Amino acid sequence: MEIVQVLIPLILTIMVYTYLVGDNPVFRVAEHILVGVSLGWATVQIFYNILLPALNVVSDNLGNKNGKSSLTEALTYLIPLILGLVLLLRPVRAFKPLSNLVMALVIGTVSALSLAGALSGTLLPQIGAAISPLNADNDPFGWFGRIVLLIGTLASLWYFQFTVFKNRPRAGEIVAQTSALGAFSERFRLLGRWSIMLAFGAIFASVFLTYFAALIDRLLYLINIRF
Amino acid sequence: MACRRCGTVLDKATDLTPTLRNQPEPPTSGGRLSRLAQARRAKEAAQGGPKPETSDLFSSLRSDAPPPPDYSSRMDEDDEADPTLSAALRQVRSEEDGEAAETPGDSATETFVPPPFEMPRPAPLPLPAVDPGQRLAALPDFGLPVNPPQQPTSPFSLSELGALMNAEAEPEAAFEAPSNPAIGEMGDDTSLPDWFDRDAAKASTSLPKRPEAVQEEAPRIGFSENTNSMPDWLRELSGSAATEKPLDESVAPRIGQTPEDTGELPDWLRNTGEKSERKPVNQPSGGPVEKKPNNPEIPDWLKQATGALPSTTRPSFGDVEVEQRLNFAFDETTDRAKEIKPGQVDHFGKDRLRQSRHTGLTDLLGLPPLRDDEEDEVQDQGTGLEAATAQTFQPAQAQPAAFNNFSVPDFPEPATAADNGLNLPDFPQSDFSQPATLYNGLAPWLEGLAPPRLDATAAASVAPTGYDLPPLPDLAPLPDSYDEPDQTEADDSRYSSSLVPWLVGLRPPAMDAFASTAKAPDLPDMLFGEDSTTENPPLTGENITDTRSFSVRDMFHQTDMVSQEFLPPVVAENPLEIDYETGQLPEWLRDEAGTSEAVLPPPPRFLSAGSMAPLALPPLPGDEMPPEDMETIPFEIPSFEGPVAPPNPTTLASVTGNQPLNYQLPDFLAEADSEPPLAISDSEMPSFLANLSPAPGKETIENDLPDFLTEHNLQAEHETLPDFLADQPSTPAFQSGADGLPDFLTQSPNFAVEMPGANAPLPDFLSRFEDDANPPLAAIDSPTSSLGNSLEFLRAEADANTAEAGSDEAIPDWLQAMTEGRSEIAAPKITTGYSPLATGSQDVSTDQQAELPEWLRTEAASASPVEPLSIDRPVFEQEAALPVEAPFSFELPPEPPATSPTPPVVAMPTSFAMEAPPSPAVSPSAEMNQFLAGLGDTGTDGLSSARLPSWLQEQSPENEIPEFKVPETGELPDWLNEKAANPAPASAKAPGPAEFGVDDPTRPDFDNFLSGAQPSFGSSNFLSDVEGPAWLRSSTQSKAPTAPLRTPEAPNPGGLPGWLRSVTPAATVEEENAPTTVGDSQFNAVEASDNRYTLPGITLPPQLASAAVLGALLAPTGLAIVKPATEKPPVVLPMGMRPEHLVRWGLSLLLLLAALVGLNLSLTTAPVAITPVVQSVYNEIDQLPANAKVLISFDWEADRYGEMRPLAQTLTAHVLAKRVRLVTFSLNPQGPALANGVLKELIDKDGYGNSTFYRYKENYLNLGWRSGQEVALRSLAQNMGDMLDYRENAPASTTPVMSGINGLADFDLVIVLAGDEGNVRSWVEQIGVQPGSHILFGTPAAVEPLARPYTLNPNPALRNDTQARSRGLIAGLNQTTQYAQLLSDNRQIKTDDKLDLNRRLSAQTLGALLLIVVVIVANVWYLARRRQ
Questions:
Q1: Distance (Å, rounded) from C-alpha B1281 to C-alpha B1305?
Q2: Cα–Cα 20 to 30 A to B26, which of B40, B191, B964, B1001?
Q3: DSSP of A147-209, one letter per residue?
Q4: Helix, strand and coil in chain B, % to nearest 5
């Protein structure tokens, strides 16, 4: 049994790495196995962690099981269950309006939470962090870092300024000349572009380390296999 | 269905226009494009066919452009609107197609006979859409641009003048005129002027035909096939006198009804006619002539003209000219335009600088210059041409621009007075703003009249180019009427006040004719005026409004104004007794002026001292001055050798009192002076010439005769006379003597004085010539005078061939037969062509030699190794293959008609058509009949001597009419007899007079020039390019080989600029014009040809040729050469062996190798450096008190197992080491299992020391997974007791570990092991914002850049606890290793040996280094490749 537990990951790992040769059925099989196992795991988790407890609550409250009966509590779970069923009936045309209502409820709720959280948890804190006082410490590198951070942030934001600043066409000019602000904008956008590219480079390097760590983990697993 | 262009019947498969045939087939695969195309076709079919997008300027430039508008339909509309014009056009085209002229009434029922299909030609230049009627109206009033090549926009062109007149007279109406009448409109093929697009003219079913002549005997200068023998000014004249209805109906001219029909009058006659109106209109025709004020001042326009005389350099005819012409066509800025300073206004008060911008093709296309407000708009639109073409035509503005580009026909080398060594005093200069270069374009005859401001250097520096000529002088401030008898010079101070006496009556050529008239006066009607006594009523009222009264009589009275009677008595008595040595006017003149010497202006420059040449002036009419006295009169000859505008005989007459002087004659007239008195009857002279010529019996008319009369008809070749001349004898006014003269001439007040009797002796100057061994005008020839050169040259020509010319042998057979009334010998058809680009000089006009007498042809043949063209060869058959300029085909008529000569043919010169197919309907014989029709008025010979004026009869030897033969030696004057007795070798240069030696370097090489030999100063293609006037070129091209007529060669490459050579047609005209079969073969042949960009064989005047070149360059050929792409066979590589695969394989192997090496070598060993961020996280956890409530959220999945498992295990180990209550939780389904695995590893194993402390549900709990991300977090933040544990599925609220914990906010520390950035943000946004939350993040390295902004600064000084931030972040293997180092160092907690953090870190470090190297190498390689 232990060998099976060792061989299965080993085989699946080798199957996945066959993708280096190219897309092949072995890789596809490993891929499908991963997806299937994940969905199966998720289904089991949903059933046992969400659906089954909900049904138990409903049944307990409606059936007066264990001596408690609370329609309100039952409805607390029963209504979401019904809405979930309506979503499952979305392919049916007759239930589509209802499913849309359920979908609207879900999306609306998530959107509200996300927007509120984004405003209070991301936007404002990020603005506050960007404008942190330069003289917070006596570290010159800190100063420099904060200045670079501020300029990079502004430049990155300015990069998405697509308005072209041009002078008013003079008489005889077909194409208006770029104004001084336009020239500065172009250069500042270029700086923002470089800032964004630096951030992307850092993310790419981090991602590489992450997946290289996965490789290392698999190699280490293979190396440490002991039959 | 027939081809719209050529009329060839096409089958349905090829039922497309040539342009459309080459369009790519629309998609038929059922796609969207195909459906759209089908729908469009269906719609077009429902609407009657595709409509031309005339508004789109470049629509015709595209291969997929719709077909051009149907010109014929427009012509139909025009037929209704203007039957006269349309009829004329129909007739012209019908003649071109060999069809008989039809009456206007036949146009409705006229059936269209399509001509043979021809090769498709590139689409023409587009033009803005214009009203058809306006376009027709914009057609040249003469129907054909008969201007010489050097005269693209001659200021003396009636077409130009007519447009300007229209602009002046009817601004509104002229504003609507859409196109330049000089070239018509070239919006598309069919909209091209008919003379430009011959095919369109032929294909048009409703093109107006030439109307029937109203009166056959009326002298008219129509467009007959004989126009090639006409001088340039006569061509213009004839063009303007075409019987077509003019543009402006309000000034519609009438076809000449009488000999006085002024429709044949040239511009200068109009001008003089206008000027003649200065005289009192109520002046009796036979009464005394009122003297004009003797104002010695020079008019302003003449003063301006003196700014720069033509240079002594010959106008180049070579590449420079062609290039300049093309530059002109391409709207290149001319040098003249650059010289114009801002603020200068022209005679119309318009900004010259602005108008100068509008040059070249835009003018040709009739595009008006932009107005001030339009120019900005055009610039805004970005396409100036498109915007310009969208405007309506504004002749009032466009015409001056055209004038700015006018040119003067090229005549023999111009020689200025400065060149002749003149040193003339300056005339008092009037202020004129025009630059000196304005004078470039002044006609030589005006130069001579102009006040001198000569400087040899300046004159040479402003050498005229022949066409880059300045606009004419100001003309605007002319009085509206000249009817007032007492009108003084103050009223017309601009001209009359500044005129010298002999210039009174002169006006700027043809300018004042329209300068002050509300309606463009048309000459025929205008000339009659209110004094007309002919049957033609004056054009008044509805015909002409606000037209100054004018009459031919008054016009010719003008000559009298400065004649003897107008001159002061002292002048008449002492004509031209001027002390030229001192530059002072003669005493009598000063006396006449009644003023002091200071008031009088200095004499004209040609009267000044220096390089005087003895001038033999003929006596004034009635003057008693003996000839011998005249010979002593020093007189300087001004230069007239430059480009000669239409001559002004009136001017000539006015100068010397009806005795034209050579120095006042244009070149073509001056050349004739070198010849003996022309043995030509007055029947050969048009009425106006007869009137303008010296009085019969007193002077010869040769000076007034055009060059074709003087050059080629010295032997009395009546056959070469044009129709209008031939018609003249039919005029009753020319019967004999004074009676034969026109009425208006006989009504001249001086007629009685000037007209001698029938037996009047030869004029004095003529008789003197006879007596004198020297040529009559030789005395006036100065050694440096080019006029003298020309005279001498011609004289030498005549002398050298007198023997030959005098014999009948020299007369061609056809000429002899013509004289004998036989028609069995057909005269060679003159196929003069003008094809500067297509055929060159050697391919056209070779038959022009037939026009020359035999002795001249011999002379020409001796100068060229090429065999002269045999006149016996019927060349007219080759006309189809040759682009000809003017079909000149004639032969002896069977019997000259006794009466009713054939009406003049208003023919469309085929020189401006794309090709000249033979005219089968009009045989050469018939043409000759027409030609000779005017000669046979009284008898079969048609040359009755009775028709000749008496003075001519006397002049001719033995009192006989020189009937079509070269005069015998005995008939010639003595000076010619002497020459004939010792004829010079034909190859030798013509000896000049004594004062003009042969070896004189300044002597122009006219003999070679006319004989076609290479001029000494010209290039090899001298006169072979587009610059040479027709007559000049024809004489040169007579040396062209005759054999390859049907296969003319390409133009001489050396004669064209390099860039133009590439676009010249490589194929012969025959190949290009050869009708090809309709079918695929035609296009297949083209596809196989490499001449993709070759130009069609066009035969156009230069400006039109330039336009055609431009059109050919711009227009798509539509014949795409589709060559199959030669694709290399792909190299089949085995799977995975492609370069990209190799790179991937290589990198993968490198990374694998690095990982393996790192795992085995353990490059990084403890201790590792601890970063602040790791230390901060460690501190946060390490600060937890015992039994603290800690929540670890396993929000990562198995894909992050390599990083997150060591991290989670390390952090959990630290937490467990703190003996806190631990609750795990997950927001993804895999989290609970991962958490369960970590907990089992750390708790269940004894090595961590946790198994003894931690019990499930007691102090640690796995709550499993909760779906919903933000929603779940938001709900769990308030209540998480309802959750079930992962292992036992028991409610969390029932577990001891959850005691005191209702929500997430109740935990002392929340450690979020987030696998992605979304989880981090969700936790921060939903839980981190909660007050008192403490969150630590553990993320993979990939999430760290995104999660770091949500982390508080590790520096406590920079922390702001109020912010929703995580308190710490640990990410990746590196920090995990650091954290493990801290645990090991501080807590002696050993991590799982299976984790092998150091080995992992070593492998990752090695992999990172490899990545850095790969990135650097890849970038270097990329940069290196990009540099390559």
A1: 13
A2: B191
A3: HHHHHHHHHHHHTT-----BPPPPTT-SSPPB-HHHHHHHHHHHHHHHHHHHHHHHHHHHHHH
A4: 40, 5, 55
Give exposure, B1004-1016, as e/b (b: 16+ Cβ within 10 Å): bbbbbbbbbbbbe
Quick one: pLDDT at residue A80? 86
Written as six digits, the tokens of B1269 are 């991300």
Q: Where are the alpha helices (DSSP H) in chain A?
A: 2-17, 25-46, 52-62, 71-88, 96-117, 124-130, 140-158, 180-223
Average pLDDT, chain B: 56
Local structure of B147: helix, strand or coil? coil
Q: What are the tokens at B976?
A: 């010619």
Q: Is B1370 helix (H, G, I), strand (E, B) or coil?
A: strand
Give the closest-approach CA distance of B1149 to chain A in angstroms: 10
Q: What radius of gyration do chain A's Cα atoms show? A: 29
* CA Rg value for chain B: 48
At residue B1114, the pLDDT reads 78
Residue partners of A43: CB distance under 8 A and separation at least 6: none
pLDDT in tens, B913-960: 344 444 444 454 555 555 555 544 444 444 444 455 555 555 544 444
Q: Do A213 and B1350 touch (CB under 8 A)?
A: no
* Residue B879 zone, left/alpha/beta (φ > 0; ψ -120 to 50; rest): alpha
> In the structure encoding, which two tokens stand for residue B11, read together?
């089958």
- Of B804, B808, B797, B801, the residue nearest B965 (C-alpha): B808
Other CB atoms within a 10 A radius of the CB of residue B1371 amount to 29
Q: Distance from B1231 to chain A by nearest Cα, in Å?
A: 10
pLDDT value, residue A49: 80
- Say yes or no for a CB contact (<8 Å) between B1400 and A46: no
Are B308 and B335 a contacting pair, CB within 8 Å? Answer: no
For residue B364, the distance in angstroms to the closest alpha carbon of chain A comes to: 25
Spatial contact of B947 and B729, defined as CB atoms under 8 Å apart: yes
Instruction: Count CB atoms within 10 A of the CB of residue A66.
Output: 8
Instruction: Report the 3 state secondary structure along B410-459.
Output: CCCCCCCCCCCCCCCCCCCCCCCCCCHHHHHHCCHHHHHHCCCCCCHHHH
Which residues of chain A lie closer than 8 angstroms to B1316, CB-CB? Answer: none
**Cis omega before residue B601 (within 30°)?**
no
A121–B1358 CB contact, under 8 Å: no
Judge: B1155–A207 Cβ closer than 8 Å, yes or no: no
In the predicted model, is pLDDT for residue B231 greater than 50? yes
Alpha-carbon span B66 to B78, nearest angstrom: 23
For residue B300, what are the contacts with CB-CB under 8 A and spacing of at least 6? B430, B432, B473, B474, B494, B495, B498
Neighbours of B1233 (CB within 10 A): 19
Confidence of residue B627 (pLDDT cuts 50, 70, 90): very low
Residue A52 three-state SS = helix
Tell me how many degrees the CA angle A21-A24-A26 measures, rounded to the nearest 5.
105
Rounded to whole angstroms, how far apart are CA atoms B803 and B794? Answer: 15
Q: Which tokens sit at B615?
A: 């001038």
* Cα dihedral across residues B864, B867, B873, B874: positive or negative: negative
Q: How confident is the model at residue B857 (pLDDT cuts 50, 70, 90)?
A: low
Comparing B160 with A148, the larger pLDDT belongs to A148
* Confidence (pLDDT) at B27: 46
Beta-sheet pairing, B886-888 with B830-832:
antiparallel
Cite the beta strand spans of B1266-1363 per DSSP E: 1309-1314, 1335-1339
Buried b vs exposed e over B437-469: b needs ≥16 C-beta within 10 Å?
A: bbbbbbbbbbbbbbbbbbebebbbebbbbbbbb
How many residues comprise chain B? 1428
What φ, ψ does residue A210 adopt, rounded to 5°? -65, -50
Work out the angle at residue B623's Cα, subtended by the Cα atoms of residues B617 and B626, and round it to the nearest 5 degrees.
60
